[in-house]
Automatic annotation (TrEMBL):
Residues 29-256 form the Peptidase S9A N-terminal domain. InterPro entries: AB_hydrolase_fold (IPR029058), Pept_S9A_N (IPR023302), Peptidase_S9_cat (IPR001375), Peptidase_S9A (IPR002470), Prolyl_oligopep/macrocyclase (IPR051167). Residues 1-30 are annotated as: Disordered. SUPFAM superfamilies: alpha/beta-Hydrolases, Peptidase/esterase 'gauge' domain. This is Prolyl oligopeptidase family serine peptidase. Keywords: Hydrolase, Protease, Serine protease. GO terms for molecular function: oligopeptidase activity; serine-type endopeptidase activity. One of its GO terms (biological process) is proteolysis. Pfam families: Peptidase_S9, Peptidase_S9_N. It comes from Paenarthrobacter ureafaciens.
């Protein structure tokens, strides 16, 4: 529990309290396409295949083939940085390329990693595994057992999804023999389900799962956690933790830091509220904080990040602050806290990471990175820890610092990684070290260039939303951009769950959008313009930015995005017929509302793995878990405001809608494919022209499980928008 991303909550008085659903249920509007909710039904999949064929016939021309090939070359490039995680003496990496589309799990030494051609020790070939077992496995990571005697790491629980969805099968893997441990020999092998696994010791796992008849919450996640001993089945394992059915999920995890071993349980009430308990003398002891305070532990320290203003011992600390207290002292009832960060109107805390002895804070100042290093061994007169700014963050870039291995006892415990990226700056990986003399760092790896970055300029602008709020956005365009309203422009956004959209290098965007060129009668040959909007509902300015667009205030996110679109038009960057927008998941809901509420601003819309039917979203896949973000449509008073941003119910006859491409994946078990299906079917039934649909038959919520699928997905979206906005060239 040493690296923590900030997360946020609705106001307590607005939060739907745990308990039975309301007896007075809002009526459901007529839904003529509810039959498409049978995800794997024969008739439904026949409809999907017919739609796929129609869309592929439209899009997969020579231009599409060139775009797809260019994207696949980026994704399969062997010059990409192989990002690594350190465990013991080795550095582990998961790698996909043309020869290994499902990927290789591998490791190397630090000395070898520094070379241009590291000597990789291959542990698991997922392509070979899939071929031998006849299952399209997707690798979702591995959790290591920390050796208790200081020997080499040997055992790991490998997470594999059979279709790219969130449900995983956990299998014990022996790093020495490079094989799975046979269940017949006592090896752990947990059935495919949504859940979480943590090592307690060499013969015991802490498991939260919905497999083997274990109960699920209304959100489809695990409701209980068990202590699974080697040789036991989940069904017979000792239950050690349970939460109410209408809470989101249960999780139990063991912290194996030497000298600070302890076990935590978390009751995730909803996305922004949780209760954390510590196992103490055989019983769970609640850590006494409000449910909307995010907490984490590192060695002797307990960290607090309140999602709302929080009063402790008569002192009020603003939402988005970071505070610390001694863990044992807090449990004993002492309420002395140290203030480590206080937000302001321009600066927010995004995440924090502990090395062994130092704390790294990743901040955003007007959506540009700033990193602070705090030293708890040097408190000032007020008790706050001495801090300095890490000189590693150029303007309009995203730079993240995190520990290499805070549990390392051999000298690397205070080392950190820096991952830096910008829209026109290929990603770099740097390694540094912290100590009494300060910090030093050196570049380790640099990503290759995939387009002519020198020809492009990154600018930050601010649009004014309907209520007067200034909304930042990034614009990436050719240095010779002509402001005559004729530039094909792709506007991207998200605006939910306190997710921040920050600068990031993308060879895909560079090749598939920025470097693409118009042809035809226009006197100017133009490339694409790429724009990222930092709208409310996200986390760019901390909790208040998120809270401002929750539930009944959701319209503010859409007003912000529309304001950015209008600003691009007013500034002469683009025009309605040249402006398109793209978003996925909650971003799909965003652009679905652009389609239905602001059709006059856009020429085309690419809407991916989306929420669209907000009346039934809580009944589909994991939708129930998002009530804290959107509200509960079964409650009549809440449906009244939810219906105002439910695109499926906002479609109207007689409206000139933008060209629309809706895409999803059959195996997406988070949002699910059915909302996308129903939206496309309703629009087509209404006679709305130029509505296209495509559903990948695997790939999960990402829509793709390997580079080939990812290239096809990204090529379809970009090619659709280019055809619609650039006159079909």
């Amino acid at each position: 529990m040493t690296t923590t991303a900030a997360d946020q909550s609705p106001l307590p008085e607005e939060r739907e309290q745990p308990g039975p659903r309301h007896a007075d249920v809002a009526p459901e509007p007529t839904d003529e396409f509810v039959w498409l909710e049978d995800i794997h039904g024969e008739e439904q999949l026949a409809w999907v295949r017919e739609q796929n064929a129609r869309t592929e016939e439209l899009l997969e021309d020579a231009g599409y083939a060139a775009v797809e090939a260019g994207i696949l070359e980026v994704l399969d490039s062997t010059d990409r940085i192989a990002m690594v995680n350190k465990r013991g003496d080795f550095y582990y990496n998961f790698w996909k390329d043309r020869e290994h589309p499902k990927g290789l799990w591998r490791r190397t030494t630090w000395e070898s990693y520094l070379s241009d051609a590291p000597d990789w020790d291959e542990l698991l070939d997922v392509d070979a595994l899939a071929a031998s077992e006849g299952i399209e496995w997707v690798f979702h990571g591995a959790g290591f057992l920390r050796p208790s005697d200081g020997s080499d790491y040997r055992l790991a629980m490998v997470s594999l999804s059979p279709d790219g969805g969130d449900a995983n099968r956990y299998r014990e893997f022996d790093l020495a023999t490079r094989t799975f441990v046979d269940p017949a020999d006592g090896g752990f092998d947990l059935p495919t389900a949504k859940g979480h696994v943590s090592w307690l010791d060499a013969d015991t796992l802490l498991v939260s799962s919905t497999a083997d008849g274990l109960p699920a919450t209304s959100s489809s996640y695990a409701r209980t956690a068990v202590k699974l001993r080697r040789g036991e089945s989940l069904a017979s394992a000792e239950q050690i933790f349970e939460i109410p059915e209408d809470h989101m999920l249960a999780m139990v995890a063991h912290d194996s830091t030497p000298g600070f071993e302890r076990t935590f349980a978390v009751d995730y009430i909803d996305f922004y509220n949780q209760r954390t308990s510590l196992l103490h003398d055989g019983a769970w002891m609640d850590i006494d904080v409000p449910t909307d305070v995010n907490i984490s532990a590192h060695r002797e320290w307990l960290m607090f990040r309140p999602r709302h203003d929080w009063s402790v011992a008569g002192v009020q600390y603003p939402a988005g602050s970071l505070l610390a207290a001694g863990l044992e002292e807090w449990l004993a009832g002492t309420r002395d806290v140290v203030v480590l960060f206080t937000p302001d109107d321009h600066t927010s805390l995004q995440s924090w990471s502990w090395t062994r002895d130092y704390l790294l804070l990743n901040l955003l100042r007007d959506v540009s990175s700033e990193i602070r290093v705090l030293d708890p061994s040097k408190p000032d007169d007020s008790g706050s820890w001495a801090w300095s700014t890490l000189d590693a963050c150029p303007p309009l870039h995203d730079v993240n610092a995190y520990a290499v291995d805070d549990e390392d006892e051999s000298g690397a415990g205070n080392d950190y990684w820096l991952v830096a990226t910008g829209f026109t700056t290929p990603t770099t990986l740097t390694r540094g070290s912290l100590g009494p003399a300060g910090s030093h760092h050196e570049e380790v790896k640099r990503s290759p260039s995939f387009f002519n970055e020198a020809g492009y300029e990154v600018q930050q602008h601010f649009a004014v939303s309907a209520d007067g709020t200034r909304i930042p956005y990034f614009q990436v365009a050719s240095k010779d951009l002509v402001l005559d309203g004729q530039n094909p422009t792709q506007l991207s956004g998200y605006g939910g769950f306190e997710v921040s959209r920050t600068p990031a290098y993308s060879g895909t965007i560079g090749r598939a959008w920025l470097e693409r060129r118009t042809t035809g009668e226009d006197a100017h040959v133009r490339g694409g313009v790429y724009v990222v909007a930092n709208i409310r509902g996200g986390g760019e300015y901390g909790p208040s930015w998120h809270h401002a667009a929750l539930r009944e205030n959701r319209h503010r996110a859409y007003e912000d995005f529309a304001a950015v679109a209008q600003d691009l038009i007013s500034r002469g960057v683009t025009s309605r017929k040249r402006l398109g927008c793209v978003g996925g998941s909650n971003g799909g809901l965003l652009v679905g509302n652009m389609l239905t509420q602001y059709p006059e601003l856009f020429g085309a819309i690419s809407c991916g793995v989306p929420l669209l039917d907000m009346r039934r979203y809580t009944k589909l896949s994991a939708g129930y878990s998002w009530i804290a973000e959107y509200g509960d449509p079964d409650v009549p008073g809440q449906w009244e405001f939810i219906r105002t941003f439910s695109p499926y119910h906002l479609l109207r006859d007689g409206v000139e809608y933008p060209e629309t491409f809706i895409w999803t994946a059959t195996s997406d078990d988070r949002v699910g494919p059915v909302q996308a299906r129903k939206m496309a079917a309703r629009m087509q039934a209404m006679g709305i022209p130029n509505v296209w649909f495509h559903e990948a038959l695997e790939g999960g919520h990402a829509g793709a499980s390997d580079n080939r699928q990812a290239a096809a997905l990204q090529a379809r979206s970009n090619h659709f928008l280019w055809r619609a906005l650039a006159g079909g060239e």
